[in-house]
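Propose amino acids for all 83 sites.
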């Protein structure tokens, strides 16, 4: 795999960061326990605008709950402030 641009990581690099591995495992376990469907998705690189697009798509799909780990909280706050 070619190295990512400075300051960014690709989805394949991000998905193996221990924090995100642990988050996904916990989310999958909780979804099983609650009997709900888990939608685990994200942008292909660490780009706040792309993360906003993913969150906007979830809002459009009218999912019941959104939990997001933001790369840039200020840049992603537009979606998180929606009612």
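Proposal:
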């Amino acid at each position: 795999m070619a190295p990512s641009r400075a300051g960014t990581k690709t989805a394949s690099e991000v998905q193996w960061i221990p924090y995100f591995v642990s988050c996904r495992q916990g989310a999958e376990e909780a979804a099983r326990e609650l009997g709900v469907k888990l939608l685990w998705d994200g942008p292909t690189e660490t780009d706040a605008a792309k993360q906003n697009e993913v969150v906007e798509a979830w809002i459009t799909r009218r999912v019941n709950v959104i939990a997001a780990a933001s790369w840039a909280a200020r840049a992603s706050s537009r979606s998180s402030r929606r009612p």
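The helical segments are 11-14, 18-34, 48-61, 73-80. Residues 18-34 form the longest helix (17 residues).
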